Amino acid sequence: MTEDNRKLPVHVSIIMDGNGRWAEERGQERVYGHAAGVESVRACTEAAVETGVRYLSLFAFSEENWNRPEHEVHTLMELMVKAMRDELPTMMKNGVRFVVLGNRDRLSASLNAMIDDCMEETSANDRLTLIIFLSYSGKWDIMQAAKKMALELAEHPEMRESVMSMDTDSFGRYLVTDGIPDPDLIIRTSGECRLSNYMLWQAAYSEFIFTDVLWPDFRKDGFRAALAEYSKRDRRYGKVK
User: Fold this and answer.
1) What is the helix, strand, coil percentage profile of the chain, to 5?
2) Domains in the chain and their CATH numbers?
């Protein structure tokens, strides 16, 4: 089956897992695996552009990851800054729009400044939207959406009737993914078979692929194989065909 006639997902999301184990298998510190995983981010981004996927999102750092050792967290943040700086010319060349979503209040001022610069620089690109979920969790997302809605209602009591009649699509505008289609396909590497508090609302009808491959070894062939598997799925959304 060729790329042209394959049923292609609009939005592919990846839970990037296995960096630490990959490093430990090689007798290295966990941060060595995170550095190697940057190459997989580059490869999958290129594969998404090449295959015509419109949105690629990557779960880079969860709210729970703040509980990891301070050295590992610090190194991860440094890697993200370096990767953004290094990849910007390639993103501009390939028409990639860069977006970061999550609880950015917990990020350093320097990292937030780098994120803002990169997002602004790539804002007009329209071939692929690359979304990095950073300091994010699904429960946090739903909670901040509920708070946002409550504050809006407190400021505008006349909205009560419209809030009470709100449907799920309307509620989606309060989530950090407002304007971004829900993921058609979620891939998780490293053999773990769980969502890990990721896009709990948005993943309601996503297709899932779990692979034993550790993230630093997941490259273009793995990405394309996942698209081929997705093309065989029959998505009914609760209906009968």
Assistant:
1) 50, 15, 35
2) 11-230 (3.40.1180.10)
Residue written as token pair 């065989």: 232
Q: Which residues of 153-176 are buried (b: 16+ CB within 10 A; e: fewer)?
A: eeeeeeeeeeeeeeeeeeebebbb
Q: pTM above 0.85?
A: yes
Is 17 annotated in the active site? yes
d(CA 63, CA 82): 21
Here the contacts of 166-172 (C-beta below 8 Å, separation 24 or greater) are: 171/145, 172/201, 172/202
Straight-line distance from the first to the last Cα atom of the chain, in angstroms, rounded to the nearest whole number: 23
Structure tokens, 81: 């800054």
Spatial contact of 101 and 136, defined as CB atoms under 8 Å apart: yes
Residue pLDDT, tens place only, 207-223: 999 999 999 999 999 99
Query: Is 65 a catalytic site residue?
Result: yes
For residue range 64-107, what is the model confidence (pLDDT) as tens digits?
999 999 988 988 898 888 999 999 999 999 999 999 999 999 99
**Which residue among the candidates 5, 19, 65, 103 is catalytic per the annotation?**
65
Annotated active-site residue in 17, 141, 182, 184: 17
CA dihedral 171→174→177→180, nearest 10 degrees, is 60
Q: What does the chain come to in residues?
A: 241
